[in-house]
Design a protein that fits this description.
The chain is an alpha+beta fold. The chain has helices spanning 33-40, 42-62, 82-102, 129-140, 150-155; strands at 11-12, 17-18, 23-30, 66-70, 75-79, 110-117, 120-122, 125-127, 146-149, 163-169, 178-183.
C-alpha cells in the first residue's frame, strides 16, 4: 500500500479514493510546542520545528515510511511493514535523543503512537478508526515514549523488539479500553 502513484489499479479515478488495505499508522507529537513558542519566540520555535521535521522525515525515508500529513507539531505516516514502522519509531526517538545531547538548551521531546488497521484513503489522506486510534495512542504516550496497540506487539513476535505491557488505556472516543505496550528503545 504505497502512495497513490505506486498503485494505480487500486484507484477509483472518479473520486481519487484508494481501496482500503492493511497499513501501519504512526503519529508523532512534539511535546509542549505552544510553550516552546512562547518561551523561544516564533522564529526560534519554527527553527526547532524544522529540526523536528527533518529528523522524523529522515527516519521515514530510511524505513520506507510515507508521510501522510504534517499536523502542525507532528507528523502522520503510514507503512506497509510492521517491523519497519517500529524500527522507524525507534530511529526517531534515537535521533531526537542524539540531537538533545548536542543541544541540551532547546531539547525536542516527541511522543509516538502506532496501530495497524485498514484506513480509507481520500485525496491522499487517510481516515477511519485505525487513524483515530493511532492518534489517541500517541496522545496517551509520555514525552520520549513510543506506545503501540496490542496488534502491533503481536505482529512483531520474533522480530527482537522489547515491549512493556502498559495495560488497558481508556481512549477518548473509543467505547472499549485498548491494550497498549511501550516499546523499549533505550537499550
Amino acid at each position: 500500500m504505497g502512495s497513490i502513484a505506486e498503485t494505480p489499479a487500486a484507484i477509483d479515478p472518479a473520486t481519487t479514493e484508494m481501496q482500503s488495505g492493511l497499513r501501519i499508522i504512526l503519529f508523532t507529537d512534539m511535546d509542549d510546542s505552544t510553550s516552546i513558542t512562547q518561551r523561544l519566540g516564533d522564529a526560534k520555535a519554527m527553527e526547532l520545528l524544522r529540526t523536528h521535521n527533518a529528523l522524523i522525515r529522515d527516519a521515514l525515508n530510511a524505513h520506507s515510511g510515507s508521510e501522510v500529513k504534517h499536523t502542525g507539531d507532528g507528523i502522520m505516516a503510514s507503512f506497509v511493514s510492521v517491523s519497519g514502522a517500529v524500527e522507524c519509531a525507534i530511529a526517531i526517538q534515537k535521533a531526537i535523543a542524539s540531537y538533545n545531547d548536542q543541544d541540551p538548551d532547546t531539547p525536542i521531546r516527541v511522543r509516538i503512537g502506532l496501530t495497524a488497521g485498514e484506513p480509507v484513503m481520500d485525496h491522499e489522506d487517510l481516515f477511519g478508526a485505525a487513524v483515530q486510534l493511532a492518534r489517541r495512542i500517541c496522545d496517551c504516550a509520555e514525552p520520549s515514549e513510543i506506545l503501540v496497540a496490542n496488534v502491533i506487539q503481536e505482529l512483531c513476535i520474533g522480530k527482537g523488539f522489547l515491549f512493556a505491557d502498559r495495560g488497558l488505556a481508556a481512549l477518548k472516543g473509543f467505547e472499549d479500553p485498548v491494550q497498549v505496550h511501550e516499546v523499549n528503545w533505550q537499550r
